[in-house]
Design a protein that fits this description.
The strands form six sheets. Strands 1-12-7-2-3-4-13-21 form an eight-stranded mixed sheet, sandwiched between helices. It is α/β, with parallel strands linked by helices. It has helices at about 40-55, 60-65, 100-105, 165-185, 200-205, 235-245, 255-275, 280-290, 300-310, 345-355, 395-405, 435-440, and strands at about 65-70, 85-95, 115-120, 125-130, 140, 160-165, 190-195, 210-215, 215-220, 225, 230-235, 295, 320-325, 325-330, 335-340, 380-385, 410-415, 425, 445-450, 460-465, 490.
């Protein structure tokens, strides 16, 4: 099947299609300043609707200055809307139009959605979930009409894929909206797109934001100079913090998303502490400063804003959850990712229905069995352990645990990249599947992957950041969509922001 990675990480700014994909290797080139402001879309969604409650008429000129796109007739057949929850697509654009070039650099045509999030406001639960979708997720190429100054795109042939961030460049926000609905099955109600020119004013208007660094970062390229610990930063430093990528951790987009989520949690905590949503004057200052950097759909009118505002009433930081769509490296190019199944579809379905996540299907176990049923004895299984998370010592811990269980560990090393959350068990052929299943029985959250390039007779365990030791979690309770848990890489809005060491761990950072 043909694959297309025309906006790949090696040259993702390129305006032309059909560019040659980079060689599969750990990412080492990273452009700066690509996604530094889109996280504020979460607060802006609340800000927009709250401001509408008391000052819409007085500040009509502010609302009118927000760019709006009519998506009528551009989305195709949308997924069903099962309830009154609100799903808002949050798009961070890297456009270089107008003042954006001063921040991101000149000579880069078009725009890409370098940050893509879905804000799910659950009125029935008085909770909210923010799901991040990595910009390098490979998705089918959908047919999209020309919109918002873009040429549109023709539907790809069966099996032809593109990076999800390319949809914005070729078909505008309507194409991004259509693509996210198609791959998730979630009905989207509105979108908010934000470029990065208003970032510094937004941070200043909300009174700054706290960031926490596990070690000092001194990077003149990003103009970032912060000691270890907690810092209350304003516009310029916050901007530099979000520009930093290649000098920290693994340099991966997945890991930067993790840092994004901790900063978003800090933002939510600050808004809650300052009662920002109860201060119309300050809210309108934020709106005024960011209106010319914002785009929404025409359907996000005053009644819609009032409806969302009603849903947000009483929402606290502990009721907000941040999670990344489950993903694994894309085999043709491990710098890109694809949705991990069935975990991704389970999460998408739970959001679409505003329900709980289904419990994992378990194989019948013999009564009174003290150990998992296995296909062959652990002593017959040779395992090479690889660190796939960047967490210091995690491969050694897994190796020791496996040895204690009777497995033969033949080596421990680093994986090709540190972007793994869920652990991955790789095997060469069907002949090695019994051994792989024996290993899988010891892990509560792992995925089997067949790789014919591996050495027959040796199983490879890539340990993800969600690894917390061996043993199946058979008694785990059913969880709601906003209480997914650390095993899924999720964090709560009221988390201690200094619990973010895994988001900084990797070969580009000192030992933590």
């Amino acid at each position: 099947m043909r694959r297309r990675t025309d906006v790949d990480d090696g040259d993702w700014n390129a305006p032309q299609r059909g560019r040659r994909p980079p060689e599969p290797k750990r990412r080492s080139r990273h452009s700066l300043g690509r996604r530094i402001t889109a996280w504020v879309s979460v607060s802006l969604a609340a800000i927009l609707v709250a401001g509408a409650l008391g000052a819409y008429v007085k500040y009509r000129s502010v609302w009118d200055s927000i760019k709006r796109v009519d998506v009528e007739g551009l989305l195709g057949k949308q997924p069903p809307k099962y309830n009154n929850a609100e799903n808002i697509l949050l798009i961070g654009s890297d456009t270089r139009v107008n003042g954006n070039a001063k921040i991101g650099g000149n000579g880069v045509p078009g725009q890409r959605s370098d940050t893509l999030m879905l804000l799910h406001v659950s009125p029935g639960h008085h909770e909210a979930t923010v799901m991040s979708i990595p910009r390098e997720t490979m998705v089918p190429i959908l047919g999209c009409a020309a919109s918002d100054g873009t040429p549109g795109q023709q539907a790809g042939s069966t099996g032809e894929l593109e990076l999800i961030n390319a949809a914005l460049d070729f078909g505008g926000p309507a194409c991004t909206w259509k693509t996210v609905e198609a791959v998730t099955g979630i009905h989207i109600d509105h979108f908010i797109e934000l470029d990065f020119t208003g970032f510094q004013k937004v941070v200043n208007d909300i009174g700054g934001v706290n960031v926490c660094l596990p070690f000092a970062v001194h990077d003149p390229r990003a103009n970032l100079n912060l000691a270890a610990g907690v810092h209350h930063v304003f516009g310029p430093e916050a901007l530099a913090f979000w520009r930093e990528r290649e000098g920290v951790g693994t340099g991966s987009d997945i890991q930067r998303i993790q840092r994004d989520q901790f900063l978003m949690a800090s933002l939510v905590q600050g808004i809650e502490h300052a009662n920002l949503l109860g201060n119309p004057a300050r809210l309108l200052d934020v709106i005024r400063d960011t209106a010319d950097a914002m785009t929404t759909d025409t359907g996000l009118d005053q009644p819609s804003m009032l409806h969302i505002a009603e849903s947000l009433k009483g929402l606290s930081s502990k009721s907000v959850q941040f999670v990344t769509s489950p993903n694994v490296p894309w085999p043709p190019n491990v710098n890109n990712v694809e949705f991990q199944q069935p975990q991704a579809d389970e999460l998408f379905n739970a959001i679409a229905h505003d329900t709980t996540l289904p419990t994992a299907t378990k194989k019948p176990q013999p009564k009174k069995s003290a150990t998992p049923v296995v296909d062959i004895a652990p002593s017959q299984v040779k395992v090479e352990v690889e660190n796939g998370s960047g967490v210091d010592g995690i491969a050694g811990t897994a190796s020791s645990d496996l040895t204690a269980k009777g497995f033969t560990v033949v080596g421990a090393t680093d994986a090709p990249n540190f972007g793994f959350t869920t652990s991955q068990i790789e095997y060469a052929s069907a002949a090695d599947l019994p051994a792989a299943n024996t290993l899988k029985a010891q892990l509560s959250n792992s995925q089997l992957v067949k790789d014919p390039a591996l050495t027959p007779g040796t199983i490879v365990l890539i340990v993800g950041s969600a690894f917390h030791g061996l043993g199946a979690a058979s008694s785990a309770p059913k969880q709601s969509i906003t209480s997914i848990g650390a095993a899924d890489g999720a964090i709560k809005g009221n988390i201690n922001i200094c619990q973010n060491k895994a988001a900084f761990a990797g070969p580009n950072s000192p030992s933590i």
